[in-house]
Design a protein that fits this description.
The chain has 407 residues and is an alpha/beta fold. The protein has 17 helices and 13 strands. It has a 7-stranded parallel sheet with strand order 3-2-1-4-5-6-7, with helices on both faces. It is globular. The N terminus is likely disordered.
Amino acid sequence: MNNQIVYKIILKIKKLFVSDNSYSPEKSEPMRIVMGVVDFCSGGLERVVIDLCVSLKVHQISSVILVANKEGKIAYAARDLGVEVETFNGDVKAFDKRIVEINPHIYMIHHCYHGIEVAASCHIPVIEVIHNTYFWQKQNEKYSILRNTCIEHFIAVSKTAASYSIKHLNVVPERVTIISNGLSNDTIIRPTLAMRKKNRLDTYLNRFVFIHIANFFPVKRHVLIVKSFALFLKYYPNSHLTLVGGSGSDHYEIKVKALVQELGISNNVTFTGYLDHRQVSIECAHSHVGLLPSLIEGFSIALLEYLYFGLPVIVTDVGGAGDVFGESLLGKLLKTPVLNDEKDNDILSVCDYSDVEIEELLNAMLCSRDNYLEWFGYGENAINHVEKFSMIETASKYVELVNNIVR
C-alpha cells in the first residue's frame, strides 16, 4: 500500500481516538521542547542542537537535551551556555520514563529514534530533524513504520536531504519543511579586516594553510585531502594542513594518521582533535582556505564557519553547499561525487579515490594558492554572504513550525 495512503489512514484513526485538546501540556504554559540525540560528543549536528536550544530561549521556549548513550566535551560546552543536558548511558527505560516525566510540548529527534513510541502514545508530537541523506536507512522497513506511525512532521536541513528522504525513505512530502541550518556567532571571535589581511596576505607566500573541520568519518574524505595535499607540497613545500575534529570512527582516524606518516608529511599536518568554538576561531584566523570535499552532507556548519571567518572555500556540491554558494564567488565548488547508493555500506566506508578525484582537488588547491589575492576577495565576499544563514533566522522558522503543530 502507498505510504501516503497509510499515513492518511493513521491520521483518521488518530482523530477518532484523540481529541483536539489531547496534548498534555497546558497551552498557557511556556513551551518546552525535548531534544533527543543518541550520542553527544562532538560534531556539526551536536553544535546545531546546542545553538538551537540557546536561540529558542529568546522566544521563551525552554529545551532539554536527552542523550540516549554517551556524552563528551560538547555536553560541557552546552551546560556552560545554560542548556540542560541529561545522559542515560544506554538505559532505554530511563530515557523513555524521562520523556513522560517532562511531558514536553514537542519531542524533537536528531538522528535518534529512542523514545518516539512512548512520546506518540502520550500524544506528544514528534518532529524528526533530517540532518543528512540517510543512505543507511534506505529500504529499512523499521524506520518507515516508525515514521508513518509516530512522527508528526519532518524538518529537512536542505533541499537535498528533503528530496532524498521523500524518494528513498518513504517520507510523505506534505509533512516536510525545509529549514536550513544557521550559524550562531555568540561564542566565536572574528578578526578585524586589518588582522585578516595581516594573518593571510602577509603570510600566504611563505606558509599557506588549509583547514578542514570534520569528525573522522570516511564520508568526510580525509584520505582524499591528505593524498591531494601531499602532491600540493611538491609545489609549495612550506604549506600546512590543519585537521580539526574528534574521533568519529577510531579505525578510520588511525588509517588517516598512518597515511600521513607513510607519505612523510607529518611535519606539515596537525591533528587538533575536538576544539570548542573559541579554539576553532584561532585556527580559522590563521588559515587561508577552508576545505570540505565531503561525499555526503546535509547542511554543513563547518562551511558556514569558514565563510564567517572570511575564508575562501573548496567544497563538493553536496547537501546545502550549492544553496549556500548560489551565484556568489566564494571559492571552488567541486563536482558532485557519483554515488552507487545501491551499496550503502560501500558509500559509508570508501577510502580509495581515483586519480581524477585527487587531481580535481589538487588543482583547486593549487588555484587557491596561485591566485590568492583574488581568493582573499572571495573570502571577504563570504562574510557578507553568510549573514543570510544566521541561527536567529533558523530559530524563528522552527518557532513558527512548532507553534503551528502545538496549536
